[in-house]
């Protein structure tokens, strides 16, 4: 019978299955490929990537930020997707270390692949890694330094952290300038980690050096026509209300008129209603009115006549920040002026940044908010600068919350790998191989940093290792001179929380991929051809 | 036999369109079924036990799931074969009924069919095979009852429950913290369990996950977490002694169900209508305010005006709360969900000691946590983890652990794991088999052999020499007459599962045997498949 030879389909026709060695191979290859892609961006001498959008070839991004690179590229390999996801989570959670986490996970898998090739069972590798992780975490925690009690020292720590973060980015030429800027901005928050209060404005033109921290709040909007352009000690009302005509919200309401005169009457009534609303607003005793929505000509006119400065179309973020800094509440009804909180500041004025007019609110009562004005030659530089500043701000905000710091420049990786190696030496059985591989993966980070800087990584890393074993626990890579140096003197400091998160997330992801022995791929959903 | 001939020798067509149909019958059909079922069980085999591996699934839209949970794997596998679909169903019903052992049941069914294949080749009729299996299954279940052990626990001594949950979580990725995870699961179940009725309402346990942080940050919260924020940025973010008004009606003028239209013909009407509208909003807010509420949770939205009125009246509000969440909150806070503003009154308000908005990391995501509820029955397990896949997998694992704990509260009998129960049942069945005088003897013996598949797979996954390990344990069980000996998957140098604290619930194991046996019976009974091939949408 022919049916004996006929294949029996079990899975869906287009679905596929990869098993055992092949599945593992495909995971490893995918993860390592992703790692190789981003690893050249690591460290102070890391290189940038150009990303070109598939839908719009004119839109390009030049970046050094791991999370940005990874989330923008199209990936089909499931293991690679896991790495992208940890990088994204790292970005959401602590904001920095997005490249390191991906590289560490990839290097762990590279070591894992070698062990699997030597016929070590993945579960043995996993249990070895778990022991290694504990050892590494312990070593990292003991190597921390906490200067939070000493204000000046802590500030120095923060500046060092900011400099370390910024040194790999496009801003590194001006890192002193920017580090001071972001530290000032974060310290203004007085311990709060809400970065909403720091507003970043990009204006092309000028050079990066011209960027500055403005102690007030800057709104990229125009003041209404005919309104005063400068107000001292203004009374500000912030609103979110329609300023064209109020729609009728009662269900089924509809205007039906039978003559032109009626129509004009209704128009008149609408206008009157609007003016009444304006009057109510003015009756709050304000001289500055900021609305989230548009302000049409008629009310604008009315406000101008009454000497009220009106600012229209400040978006959601804008009004929320403004209400935060001026202390005003966001108003949508105007019947109870006595209940409404009116905001204030010292001075509102229209200022020029580059060629654009913006509105500056200075001397705001809640001194937490500030604005970072970025200047730069092209929009790409500005965007990359914004990403870098965002990273630095995140790291600093995290550090303000968790004040412990660790040394960078491969030093803390060395400390961890030394602890893990020592554990491997006293562990009997095959697990020791896995533990050793963990240490090796950790040492890959300084190796990559040195490689990216164009130095002899094998020489440097072995020197570094030797220095650590000789008891110099502050030794790290000096990438300016290409030698081993004291990291504390070099001032390369990183946040403990970021480092720890990198270690744990990378291990979690590597373990997850290691545990997989079967990949089942569903048939891709059939898409309807797009009709234009 | 789709073609017959009448008495004049003319062909007489019984099944039309021969070419368009595929037909398998007799032994061929049996073999095809068994092959399909075996394929599925082979995929699952490597996930069994504490050293089992995970599967990575890529969904239709390219989403990645990494899991060790049998039911989840099969559900996402997009199986096309009919018999394979039966196996998927099998795992699903185990999941619905017991919530754990979804992998084991498939492996067992696969192994039973494998044994049946051998018997069919010997020429034993499938009917006799499944009759023999029935007999064997009955013996096994009786035996399970006799080797089961009951554990005692109370609200103060949860240790046995935690130990069982740990067995359940042992095979999952969370096993790095499985002590902590099991404690969370057990505490969650115990706090919602009704010890009198021995029942647990899972609706009171909410599993919420958020990527970021690490697995050990997972915590049990006595209260409810919803992924919504307070509607207005300036409303207070922390409310103590909250009196919560739960609404399922929107803050807007009523929408009559009947179609209506209000025609505005005069300018005065426009004004009047505007005033009425304003009055609506004010009335609504006033009604809520009058009850003394200080937090409004609304299933619907409300516009800027209503939002601001609420702010002005000091009523923090949350909009677009999901219907299920609202019900849970109602249960936890003892409030009543109100559908019309006319019905709002003070006695319908829910109460909570503390309501606060929490944010994570550098993102804008905000969660609302409602704690210290009068009805402590509602709890939330908040799972954290380094990436989305791990959070999802941890949620699934905790769900399994919850199920196991619930089963123990319902029925406190346990049996020992590590394959010990299967080995012991196998031995019992094998000894009974010889007493059966008919052909079924072979089938019964085959059942005993099939049971070996579980300890074999356990041993293989743990990196032990499978046959050596199994025969060693078998001999030891007979020698010491101790049914608690199993495969030492964790290299603890003892085969005694009682000492290793590896437990399974009795109903779980019984259910596994029964379900697997039923499905096998069903599959063996089919001897013909007629498949309509070339259906129009298949191209």
Q: Give the end-to-end Cα distance of chain B, rounded to a whole number of Å.
A: 29 Å
The overall number of domains of chain B is 2
- Count the beta strands of chain B: 22
Mean pLDDT of chain A: 77
Percentage of residues in strands of chain A = 15-25%
CATH A-level architecture of the largest domain in chain A: Orthogonal Bundle
Q: Write down the CATH class of the largest domain in chain A.
A: Mainly Alpha
Largest sheet of chain A, in brief, is: 5 strands, mixed
- The separation of the N and C termini of chain A measures 51 Å
Radius of gyration of chain A: 30 Å
The CATH topology of the largest domain in chain A: GROEL, domain 1
- Described by the principal axes of the CA atoms, the overall outline of chain B is globular
Write down the overall mean pLDDT of chain B.
79
**Can you give the helix content of chain B as a percent range?**
40-55%
- Main sheet record of chain B: 7 strands, mixed
How many separate structural domains of chain A? 3
| Rough outline of chain A | globular
Give helix % range of chain A: 40-55%
- Rounded Rg of chain B: 30 Å
Most residues in contact: chain pair = A-B, 88 and 89 residues
Could you name the ranges of chain B where pLDDT drops below 50 across 5 or more consecutive residues? 535-539
Protein name (chain B): T-complex protein 1 subunit epsilon
Function (chain B): Molecular chaperone; assists the folding of proteins upon ATP hydrolysis. Known to play a role, in vitro, in the folding of actin and tubulin.
Keywords (chain B): ATP-binding, Chaperone, Cytoplasm, Nucleotide-binding
Main location (chain B): cytoplasm
What does this structure look like?
Chain A is globular. Chain A is of the alpha+beta class and 532 residues long. The longest helix of chain A is centred in the middle third of the chain and has 23 residues, at 260-282. Chain A is 48% helix and 17% strand. Chain A has three domains: 16-145 and 407-518, GroEL-like equatorial domain (GROEL, domain 1, Orthogonal Bundle), CATH 1.10.560; 148-208 and 372-402, TCP-1-like chaperonin intermediate domain (GROEL, domain 2), CATH 3.30.260; 217-366, GroEL. With 539 residues, chain B is an alpha+beta fold. Chain B folds into two domains: 26-150 and 416-533, GROEL, domain 1 (Orthogonal Bundle), CATH 1.10.560; 223-376, GroEL (3-Layer(bba) Sandwich). Helices cover 47% and strands 18% of the residues of chain B. Chain B has helices at 26-45, 70-75, 82-97, 102-121, 126-147, 159-169, 178-192, 267-290, 304-312, 323-333, 388-410, 420-433, 440-451, 453-461, 466-480, 497-500, 506-525; strands at 3-5, 11-13, 21-25, 54-58, 64-67, 149-150, 193-194, 199-200, 205-211, 219-221, 223-226, 238-247, 262-264, 295-298, 317-318, 337-338, 350-359, 366-371, 379-385, 413-416, 503-505, 528-532. In chain B, strands 11, 12, 14, 15, 16, 17 and 18 form a seven-stranded mixed sheet that branches. A three-stranded antiparallel sheet of chain B has the order 6-20-21. In chain B, strands 9-19-10 form a three-stranded mixed sheet, with helices on one face. The two termini of chain B are 29 Å apart. At the A-B interface, helix 3, helix 5, strand 10, helix 8 and helix 10 of A face helix 1, strand 4, strand 13, helix 8 and helix 9 of B. Chain B: Belongs to the TCP-1 chaperonin family. Chain B: One of its GO terms (molecular function) is unfolded protein binding. Chain B: Molecular chaperone; assists the folding of proteins upon ATP hydrolysis. Known to play a role, in vitro, in the folding of actin and tubulin. Chain B: Keywords: ATP-binding, Chaperone, Cytoplasm, Nucleotide-binding.
């Amino acid at each position: 019978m022919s049916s004996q030879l006929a294949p029996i389909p079990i899975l869906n026709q287009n679905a596929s299955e990869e098993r055992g060695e092949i599945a593992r191979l495909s995971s490893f290859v995918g993860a390592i490929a992703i790692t190789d892609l981003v690893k050249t961006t690591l460290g102070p001498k890391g290189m940038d990537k150009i990303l070109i959008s598939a839908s719009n070839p004119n839109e390009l991004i030049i970046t050094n930020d791991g999370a940005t690179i990874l989330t923008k590229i199209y990936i089909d390999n499931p293991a690679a997707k896991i790495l992208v996801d940890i990088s994204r989570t790292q970005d959401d959670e602590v904001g920095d270390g997005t490249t390191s986490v991906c590289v560490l996970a990839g290097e762990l898998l590279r070591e894992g692949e070698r062990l699997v090739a030597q016929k070590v069972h993945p579960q043995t590798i996993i249990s070895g890694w778990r022991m290694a992780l504990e050892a590494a975490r312990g070593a990292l925690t003991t190597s921390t330094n906490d200067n939070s009690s000493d204000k000046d020292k802590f500030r120095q720590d923060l500046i060092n952290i900011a400099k370390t973060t910024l040194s790999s980015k496009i801003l590194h030429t001006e890192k002193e300038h920017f580090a001071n800027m972001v530290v000032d901005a974060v310290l203004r928050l007085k311990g709060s980690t809400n970065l909403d209060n720091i507003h970043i404005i990009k204006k092309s033109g000028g050079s990066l050096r011209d960027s500055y921290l403005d102690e007030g709040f800057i709104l990229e909007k125009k003041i209404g026509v005919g309104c005063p352009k400068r107000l001292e000690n203004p009374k500000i009302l912030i609103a979110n209300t329609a300023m064209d005509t109020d729609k009728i919200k009662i269900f089924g309401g509809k205007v039906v008129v039978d003559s032109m005169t009626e129509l004009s009457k209704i128009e008149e009534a609408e206008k009157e209603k609007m003016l009444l609303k304006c009057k109510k607003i003015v009756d709050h005793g304000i001289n500055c009115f900021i609305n989230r929505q548009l302000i049409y000509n008629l009310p604008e006119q009315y406000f101008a006549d009454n000497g009220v400065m009106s600012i229209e179309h400040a978006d959601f973020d804008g009004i929320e920040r403004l209400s935060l800094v001026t202390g005003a509440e966001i108003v949508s009804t105007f019947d109870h002026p006595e209940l409404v909180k009116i905001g204030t500041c010292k001075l509102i004025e229209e200022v020029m940044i580059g060629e654009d007019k913006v509105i500056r609110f200075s001397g705001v009562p809640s001194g937490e908010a500030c604005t970072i004005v970025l200047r730069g030659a092209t929009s790409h530089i500005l965007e990359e600068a914004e990403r870098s500043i965002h990273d630095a701000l995140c790291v600093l905000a995290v550090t303000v919350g968790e004040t412990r710091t660790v040394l960078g420049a491969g030093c803390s990786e060395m400390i961890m790998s030394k602890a893990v190696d020592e554990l491997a030496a006293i562990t009997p059985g095959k697990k020791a191989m896995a533990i050793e591989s963990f240490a090796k993966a950790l040492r890959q980070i300084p190796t990559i940093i040195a490689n990216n800087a164009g130095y002899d990584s094998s020489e440097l890393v072995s020197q570094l290792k030797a220095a650590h074993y000789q008891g110099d626990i502050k030794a790290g890579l000096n990438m300016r001179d290409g030698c081993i140096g004291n990291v504390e003197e070099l001032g390369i400091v990183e946040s403990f929380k970021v480092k720890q998160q990198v270690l744990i997330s990378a291990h979690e992801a590597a373990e997850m991929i290691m545990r997989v022995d079967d990949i089942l791929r569903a048939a891709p959903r059939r898409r309807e051809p797009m009709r234009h | 036999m789709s073609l017959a001939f009448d008495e004049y020798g003319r062909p007489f067509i019984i099944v039309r369109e021969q070419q368009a149909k595929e037909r398998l019958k007799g032994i061929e059909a049996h073999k095809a079924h068994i092959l399909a079922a075996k394929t599925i069980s082979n995929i699952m085999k490597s996930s069994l036990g504490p050293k089992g591996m995970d599967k990575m699934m890529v969904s239709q839209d390219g989403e990645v799931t990494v899991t060790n949970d049998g039911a989840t794997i099969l559900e996402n596998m997009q199986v096309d074969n009919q018999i394979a679909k039966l196996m998927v169903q099998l795992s699903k019903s185990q999941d619905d009924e017991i919530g754990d052992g979804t992998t084991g049941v498939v492996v067992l069914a696969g192994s039973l069919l494998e044994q049946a294949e051998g018997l069919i080749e010997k020429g034993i009729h499938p009917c006799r095979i499944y009759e023999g299996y029935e007999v064997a299954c009955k013996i096994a279940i009786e035996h399970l009852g006799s080797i089961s052990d009951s554990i005692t626990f109370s609200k103060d001594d949860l240790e046995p429950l935690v130990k069982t949950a740990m067995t359940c979580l042992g095979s999952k990725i969370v096993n790095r913290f499985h002590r902590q995870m099991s404690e969370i699961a057990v505490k969650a179940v115990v706090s919602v369990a009704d010890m009198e009725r021995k029942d647990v309402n899972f609706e009171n346990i909410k599993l919420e996950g958020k990527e970021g942080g690490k697995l050990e940050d997972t915590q049990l919260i006595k209260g409810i977490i919803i992924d919504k924020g307070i509607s207005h940025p300036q409303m207070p973010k922390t409310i103590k002694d909250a009196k919560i008004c739960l609404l399922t009606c929107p803050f807007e003028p009523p929408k009559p169900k009947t179609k209506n239209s209000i025609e505005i013909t005069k300018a005065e009407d426009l004004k009047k209508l505007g005033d009425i509208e304003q009055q609506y909003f004010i009335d609504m807010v006033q009604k809520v305010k009058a009850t003394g509420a200080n937090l409004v949770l609304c299933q619907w939205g409300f516009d800027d005006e209503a939002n601001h009125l609420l702010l002005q009246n000091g009523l923090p509000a949350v909009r677009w709360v999901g219907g299920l969440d609202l019900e849970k909150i109602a249960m936890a806070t003892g409030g009543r969900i109100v559908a019309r503003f006319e019905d709002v009154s003070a006695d319908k308000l829910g109460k909570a000691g503390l309501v606060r908005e929490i944010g994570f990391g550098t993102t804008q995501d905000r969660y609302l946590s409602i704690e210290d509820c009068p009805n402590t029955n509602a709890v939330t397990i908040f799972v954290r983890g380094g990436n989305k896949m791990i959070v999802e997998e941890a949620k699934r694992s905790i769900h399994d652990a919850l199920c196991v704990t619930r089963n123990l509260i319902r029925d406190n009998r346990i049996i020992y794991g590590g394959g010990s129960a299967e080995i012991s049942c196998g031995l019992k069945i094998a000894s009974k088999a010889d007493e059966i005088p008919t052909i079924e003897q072979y089938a019964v013996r085959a059942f005993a052999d099939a049971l070996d598949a579980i300890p074999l797979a356990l041993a293989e996954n743990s990196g032990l020499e499978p046959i050596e390990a199994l025969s060693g344990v078998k001999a030891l069980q007979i020698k010491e007459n101790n049914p608690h000996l199993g495969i030492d998957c964790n290299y603890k140098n003892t085969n005694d599962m009682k000492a290793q604290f590896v437990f399974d619930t009795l109903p779980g194991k019984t259910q596994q045997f029964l379900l697997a046996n039923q499905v096998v019976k069903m599959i063996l009974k089919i001897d013909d498949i007629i498949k309509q091939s070339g259906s129009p949408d298949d191209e």
